Every structure is written in structure tokens, then in C-alpha cells.
Amino acid sequence: MQIWRSLHDVPADLGPTAVVVGNFDGVHLGHRQVLARARALADESGLTLVAVTFDPHPMAVLRPEHAPSTLTSIEVRAELLAEAGADAVLAVPFDLDVAGWEPDEFVQRVLVDALSAARVVVGANFRFGRKAAGDVATLQAAGERLGFVAEGIPLDGGPMVWSSTYVRTCLATGDVAGAAEALGRPYAVRGVVVHGDQRGRELGFPTANVPTDGLTAAPADGVYAGRLQRLDTGEIFPAAISVGTNPTFNGVRERRVESYVLDRTDLELYGVEVEVSFVDRLRGMVAFESVEKLVEQMDADVDRARVLLTS
After folding, report:
1. What string of pLDDT tens digits covers the 311 residues of the chain?
2. What CA–CA distance (Å, rounded) separates 256 from 101?
3. pLDDT of residue 294
4. Closest CA to 217 of 183, 246, 240, 267
5. Pairs from 32-38 (Cβ < 8 Å, separation ≥ 24)
6. How far, in Å, CA of 30 to CA of 152, rounded?
């Protein structure tokens, strides 16, 4: 997968392309419908399929106080776009200059000059250009003048309209099953395993600890059934996952994703990059009156996670 980080990185000899444009955060099922349509058009005409996205999220530049936490880093987004059919990704560096481009300027610079677009596919609610002045009709009119054909695809699956906002809403309430339904896969976070306070090991449940940075969405505080994958070897393990600050113990303030690989106490994961995926919510986060009560609940959590992950 090629990721071009600016318009200047696009090869001059790229040739005609099919293009999809959007934030594509999470690459949910609606995004995949757009990519599937564009992939079919690209295959019909022998075109390279390029996914155009923006880094950072436009809201982080235009209204940073309202910027959403991201569901995927640009690298993970590119992997998911490739899985969905894209040949390459153009991550347009979004700043105030780009935000000031009128719709026609965006079309000329990105779609025509950089990508030689022949077909363009976007979501039906797509907006672009200064103050989001452009829409699908604007894009289609520009295509008639400039030599490409554009279309908008509904981002829905029957009664549900898939959106990144919907996925974030699910995660904020701990509804990881709902998030997975919209994404077409379990929601996952990535990070390098760091040393924690060793309490899990002392209690018989050693965990792989991944800090949350606040920029990437994580499910609401609670305990989940899920899986941990080592990205160096590809190995996947069933896990009980805690998200939060361990309220039973005083002094723990850093929010973490802590994964206990079921029935394994021999894994050494420090310094290893892992992906933690969430299958179902077991319970909310609780401060227990004693360590004994906590261990009792952890045993029950592990038993329930084992059942959920093997059913």
C-alpha cells in the first residue's frame, strides 16, 4: 500500500484513476460500499483506485475544541482502505490553506492535476471546499466540465445510516457490539505494551498494558471480552480487557487498556506492538471494597469472556 503524504508525492506517471474522497475514519461499512463501487469502476476501465483522505481530521484544524477522537491512525486507515480495494492512499495534509480552497480549486488541484481522475465516487452526504460549499451536485458539474464522472453512494444498510459519529457514540457507551456491526469487524486499538504497576501479575492475572493517548477513541471504562494480536508475529489470543484507571487502587490516574490473555501467564509482551480488539462488554468499571472481592470478580469476568469468545 502506497501512502502519499502530499500532492507532490503523487507519481507524475500515475495515469488515469478512479478516486474516492472522504475522511474514512474507521473505514466502516458505508465507506466500504463507496470503495466497492469505485473498485468495480476501476476494474472495468483499468484504472488505479486512489483513496483521498485528510490528515489531521479537518475539525482538528477548523474547530479543535470540537474535534472528535479518531477511530484509526492514518497508517491503520490506509491498511483498511487497502483491504477494501484501494490501490493507494493520498493523505492530504489539512491546514488553514487547504481549508480555504473553493470547491473548484480542490477539484482542479487534487482530482484533475494530481490524480487525473476519470471516475470519482463519494458518499451521498459528501461536502468539500471552503465552508463545505461543495456537494455531490457540485462535483458532478465540475466533472462535466473537466472530463470525469462523479457519483454519490448512500452510506446506509437498510434502516441504519453508517457513520464514524455513530461508531464513536457506541464506543462512548461501551456498546462495542454495536460499533462492530457498523464497522463490519470488532473495534480495535493499537499500541506498544508498557510496564504497568504489576498488580495484575500479583493477583494472578498478568496484563499487557497499552496507554490511551486521548486522541484515539477507546471504549467506555469497563471490562470487555476480546482478543489481543501480536503485530510482530501475527499471533492472536483470547483476552479479558479492562479499560479505565483501576478505581479499586488509589493513585492510578492514567487511563489504560489492560489485556489479560486467557489462561496464559508466560507471555512476555513488553515493547511489543499489539492490537486489542473488543468483542463484547462484560460490565462497567467498579471500585471494590477489597482485593479479595476484586479477584473474585476477575475470575467471573475471565469465565464469562471464555464462554463469549468460544461460542
Report:
1. 789 999 999 999 999 999 999 999 999 999 999 999 999 999 999 999 999 999 999 999 999 998 889 999 999 999 999 999 999 999 999 999 999 999 999 999 999 999 999 999 999 999 999 999 999 999 999 999 999 999 999 887 666 678 999 999 999 999 999 999 999 999 999 999 998 765 656 666 889 999 877 667 899 999 999 999 999 999 999 999 999 876 555 555 677 899 999 999 889 899 999 999 999 999 998 888 788 888 899 999 999 999 999 97
2. 40
3. 87
4. 183
5. 32/84, 32/184, 33/153, 33/154, 33/155, 34/121, 34/122, 34/123, 34/153, 34/155, 35/81, 35/84, 35/85, 35/86, 35/121, 36/84, 36/85, 37/121, 37/151, 37/153, 38/85, 38/119, 38/121
6. 12
Residue 198 falls in which region: left (phi positive, over 0), alpha (psi -120 to 50) or beta = left
Written as nine digits, the cell of 271 is 515493547
State the DSSP code for 185: S
Q: Give the whole-angstrom CA distance, residue 296 versus residue 38.
A: 52
Three cell numbers at 268?
512476555
- Total-model pTM: 0.91
Q: How far is CA 271 from CA 138, 215, 231, 258, in A?
A: 49, 21, 11, 14
Peptide bond into 56 cis (omega under 30): yes
11 contacts: CB under 8 Å, gap ≥ 6: none
Are 19 and 52 in contact by the 8 Å Cβ rule? The answer is yes
Half-sphere exposure of 32 (CA within 13 A, CB side): 14
**252, 200 contact by CB (below 8 A):** no
Give the burial class of 167: count Cβ atoms within 10 A of its Cβ; 0-12 exposed, 13-18 middle, 19 or more buried: buried
Instruction: Indicate the Cα dihedral angle 175, 176, 179, 181, nearest 10°.
Output: -100
Query: What angle (nearest 5°) sits at the alpha carbon of residue 231, between those of residues 228 and 235?
Result: 55
